[in-house]
Design goal:
Blueprint (H helix, E strand, L loop, with lengths): L1 E2 L16 E6 L7 H14 L4 E6 L1 H4 L6 H17 L7 E5 L5 H10 L4 H5 L2 H9 L6 H15 L5 E3 L5 H18 L7 E4 L28 H9 L20 H6 L6 H9 L5 H15 L1 H11 L2 H14 L1 H15 L3
Parallel strand pairs: 2-3, 3-4, 5-6
Antiparallel strand pairs: 1-6
The structure holds adenosine-5'-tetraphosphate.
Length: 339
Amino acid sequence: MTTETPPSPAAGSTLPAAPRIFSGIQPSGAPHIGNDLGAIRNYVALQDRYEAIYCIVDYHALTSTHDPEMLRQRTREMSAALLALGLDPERCTLFVQSHRPEVTELAWLFTTVTPVAWLQRTPTYKEKRQNQPEDVNHGLLTYPVLQAADIVLYKASLVPVGKDQAAHLELTREIVRAFNGRYGETFPEPQAVHTEAPVVLGTDGARKMSKSLGNTIEIFAEPETIRRQVMSMVTDTQRILRSDQGRPEVCNVCRLHRFFGDDYEEIWDGERTARTGCVDTKKLLAERIIARYAEPRERYLELMADPTRVERVLAEGAERIRPIARATMDEVHARMGLR
Ligand code: AQP
């Protein structure tokens, strides 16, 4: 686990006694190994060490998913996925963002301390504008403000996320500084916590693995689909012939082997000496990914077959954190002169 900067709790504010962590994940499609290697495995590890709050951010997903039934279904799937991968409702709080709507009020209040220019320069906003030019909605621009509200509504100081979220988290820190500067020390400046795989590239070997880019290896897909996705991966583009020596350090398949077995050096050596070909290395990776997620996949299918169990976990989660959300909003109202 790595963190970006040392802790900087806001002095004099009503901070939680122990560090609290928060992270959110969008129900915008099937979870992929980038989500797991970059974030979810830290969610699981950190639930034992901190007061952990995890959220399925359905408001955020509305910036790109406009079909109500699809959003409901994906929210169910992401909830089951997180539980299947090891989130334990006895050790963490799992809830759905829209079930604690205080966050939308806080986001609005934060817009009043956030210059528009900060949002316009966000790299993800620029990317999304390119990826969905026919739907550049206001939510895409203000996404980081809602994300800041997500985190600090619970006064979380640590945020397990992939590296792609670094700019958003920096913006959260700027918004917190702007708010604290105008209204007095209220919120801690949260820090990112990264895994050993903070950026997982997609099957194209060029861009971040991303649900919306369709370059993913899905965790809970059928084994045949996982095999197909892995076999489609771009490897070392300079290795043309089977007899050419490979460069495992630039090959995405080889890089992923680091996280699916403890013999990656041997695999890399096979590539370097052309003892093994790209197809062999891909086949091995596919089987290892299938084996790694076999048990979570069974749990996932069980949970999907028992929706009331998942709904109960989510309802209890939203209820458990209600007092924290209310206390923060009372404090914010008082500081801003609203009530
Ligand atoms: N490729 C990745 N490598 C490392 N970490 C990643 N994460 C996502 N992709 C990678 C981390 O997973 C958490 C949840 O991400 P998200 O689904 O809420 O949003 P995202 O980052 O926008 O993921 P996608 O797949 O790219 O979603 P779409 O396509 O819907 O925008 C985050 O901590 C993220 O860093």
